[in-house]
Amino acid sequence: MPEPVNNPYLRLEVDLSAIAANLAALRRRLPAGGRVAAVVKADAYGHGLVPVARRLLAEGVEALAVATWPEGRVLRAAGIAAPVLVMLGCQPHEAAEVVSLDLTPVVARPACLQALAAAAAGQGKTARCQLKVDTGMGRLGLAPAEVPGLLRQAAALPSLEITGLVSHLAEGGDPASRHAGRQGARLAGLLAELRDQGHRLADSSLCGTGGLLVPPWPGEPAAGLHRLGIGLYGGRPHDNAPAEAGLITAMRLTSRLIQVRPLAAGGGVSYGRTWIAPRDTLLGAVPVGYSDGYPRAASNRGVMLVAGRPAPIRGRVCMNLTMIDLGHLDPPPRAGEPVVLLGSQGSQAIDLDQLAGWGGTIGYDLACSLGRANPRHYL
Fold first, then answer.
1. pLDDT confidence tier of residue 19, bands split at 50, 70 and 90
2. Strand locations in 197-308, DSSP E?
3. Is 271 in the active site?
4. What is the mean pLDDT of residues 346-365?
5. Which position among 9, 132, 271, 294 bears the catalytic label?
6. Domains in the chain and their CATH numbers?
7. Of 106, 246, 358, 359, which one has the fewest beta carbons inside 10 Å?
8. Is 125 a catalytic residue?
9. Using N-to-C axis directions, what is the helix angle for 49-58 and 69-77, rounded to 10°?
10. What are the φ/ψ torsions at residue 347 (nearest 5 degrees)?
11. What span, in angstroms and rounded, lies between the C-alpha atoms of 200 and 223?
12. Res. 287: pLDDT tops 90
């Protein structure tokens, strides 16, 4: 397969120290005894699976969480031995490889438990897994009433250990949500019942970044794990989530002006001429577009930073080019000057959620898109 041809006029940087700082800021909000499972699925939200996992482990996270077991295989191949939760679990025919890799899948089917136990017995090991409980997300998992029965089935299987229950908030991070509180109450009640029956379930988890910033209950029913994802990368889980957490966008996207030219009043810009200059101005051409993961929906909405000041996007973002208005800058910029599309320049900054908002999407989506489209440079 030929090597991808990357945009030579764009640089995507990942600041690992920013990720470490975000972890420290979030840890300060953990309940006593709370532990962190750092979510590094989807190539660490576009930031790079192995480099990010290594830095987070060096900073003391207790576990990692991925979506699929092949992501776990990549971590093991890189020499990472930490506990790894596999949030999409595994199918019965995949159990032998999951057990051989010492991964902890999150499952909800008796057939998966049976396959994991059989694979572990065959390998002379103990398989560890968790049970997915749907407390109100409406996706994967068992109804709470089904959990005690499945735990009884699991107890009869040799070479199998259930380490916790996993659920997920549908409105995590929203201070106005009442549903999050109901989900918290359901899981807390279920855990109390099961622990009275002798089940430890010490690694149970409900909260991600959103649940940590806006706890779904007064206090924690048990310390357990917190599955921290978007906050590690500087994003917020909800528009109304508290902004005082001090999270730092860990990505920085930069380019340079490749042309600066005058545009007379009445002149249109880019496909469809969706912006017409109301007065004489100066346009800058930035060689970045939606093929680089930059959101097309930021057309006529977003800004870029030039000389430490915002420069509005004019016209439609193209596949390889975006035009920005430089007419208000003095002295006028010249071709070759740096442009910041994400990150800070001088006293100004564009954070992940701001750029995502201009693009009509969320920080999760934007970070994944940028990381998938571009080579990363680590700071």
1. very high
2. 225-228, 251-256, 259-263, 268-269, 275-276, 281-286, 303-306
3. yes
4. 96
5. 271
6. 31-233 (3.20.20.10), 251-378 (2.40.37.10)
7. 246
8. no
9. 70
10. -90, 0
11. 12
12. yes
